[in-house]
Amino acid sequence: MQLTHRFVALLLGLLVLTTTATAIDEQTAQLIEQTKADYQPVTPEEVDRARSELAGAAVELEQFLVPGSDRGERWKQYLQWQGVQKALTEGAQPNLSELRSSLDKFRSGAVGLDLPPFLRTAAAIQRYADLATIERAGDQHAFVDRQLALLTKYIDRYEQQPSGRARFEIERRIDFFVGIDRATALTTYLLGRFNQPNICSEVSERFLNRVGSRPVDDVGPVTDCILGTSIRGTGHTTGEVTIETVPSPDRALLVLHLTGVTHSETRGYNSPVVIRSSGTTPFTATKRIGLQDTNFWNYPAKVTATTATITRSVKKQGGGLGSNLVARIGEQRVAEKKPQADRIAARHAEERIGRKLDDELLPRLQDARYEYEQQFKQPLAVRDAEPRSIVFSTTDHSLNVTMLEAGRGELGSDTAPPAFDGTHDVAIRVHDSGASNMASAILGGATLSQGTRESDPELDVDLPQALQEAFDKAREENADEQVIDDEREFKPWSIRFRRQRPVTVEFADEHVNLRLHASRITVADDTYDGWDIVVRYGMHAQHGGLILVRVGEIEVIPSGFDPADGGGLNSRQVSTRGVLAKELNRQAEAGRGFPEEITLPMIDLPDDMAEHGPLLLQHSSSKDGWLSLGWVLPE
After folding, report:
1. Fewer CB near the last or first residue (10 Å), C or N of the chain?
2. Which has the closest alpha carbon to 540: 591, 596, 589, 599?
3. pLDDT, tens digit, for every residue of 383-398?
4. Domain boundaries, given as residue ranges, for the chain
């Protein structure tokens, strides 16, 4: 019987391949055949090793949490640790659903989960769950053949008509093979086909100079020693800082130019005389900064200065007998040494200005690096969704960052991003895949719920700080616009997002289309499993911001339903769809759930730049899978 099943599976796989091979490229077809022929089943020994690695990580984590401590018990409760412990019980079959629910908690973004014991345990859970899944398949060859047949089917469908559903089905199979460490050549090739950046940003040199350049007006003490003369006095430095972007394809290079002059009034003490002088030191300074994903580079300042002094007086210290003679001799010696002294003074000024630039900019660059690591990279890393690539670059007019945001098995863009037109101070381009993958990193396996009429909807995962702040601001902006009809009955509700691809975002025809994939929806006592919620918003630029206006009613569709497969909904699905759609639209009409309008206001700049802002939206476009936004500073 097993041979019969395997023969049927192979026949079905060959049937799919023969009917679609002409639509997929030859290399993909060859790699699929090679994967089928070369597949080596996952062995019990591999699963046992993964289980042992998880057991070791679990022991390390429990020791880190301090056995019996209140802190440790709270962490275990939050992480749903009981499911992991059950999986490690001798002779027990792991409950894969419980393991993956625990993994969702490990990757929820809660503060502290970026510590090594948590990260190692999360990776070990993932590895064990992946291998245990395929081990349960029984006939692994038949199972793999089926996955390859489906992969072929959805690659063919995507080539004919790109869609979020086809991308998801391709991603599922890539993730499966990556998880069991098989089909490396095939998965590498497919990921390479969808390897274009999917989030691109540009900041103009003009913007950097508006918010970053500043006049210099500094008064401070002057202390020096030149040719044995101890100098004390006051210097007044004025100047201007400008910023230049230097063309560089693999890192961002910025050059800060400081042009200015220092006027000084000093007294020089070289026994037995006191020399009073006025000095003028014009200078130019350049400071180069490099930005890469791996590091921010701080290069030493280069300064060129010249000093010209005027000797106001030379007097004998303390006056008294012989003052005139001492003064005349002193004047002669000062005059003889003045060219040399001015050259030395200029070199000392160069060192002093360079040191000051370095001392002022290094802490700022270190703070920027810390923010980049902690506010951007770390929240994604703890969710196992760190971007596959981040490239900083500069042109002669802008600083650019292009990113491929794609977690394990996820695809990037298969089209190049639209070109920036150079008329904006700040611009961003986001591909469907960039938005969808970012949403997956944050919302996969999460639950959104509202328990009472008065409470706000809540997520059971932590949002990255920057996103949380933006969300709070948007909620405040929209609060007054949401008119809640208190006469309508409120029903507590919750949406548990699907673990893989919880949200599909599509940018097309000046609309933003959202498809929320829910593994479970509850409304009061009613439960609905495996439904998608489809909402469509039109884009309208207004008052320097963006307003999204809901188009049509909220729709619901069974998650597994694909019109491209033919057929329709059964009677039960039709009935459930009607009830659920009616309830979601009723809640929306009452000002709850999906709002009719979402206001994304103009962007306020940070406090130290606020005087130049806010950023006003000048351009918005949504087409061909790309969202394009451009902002300008007010004149």
Report:
1. C
2. 599
3. 989 999 999 999 999 9
4. 1-193, 205-373, 418-632
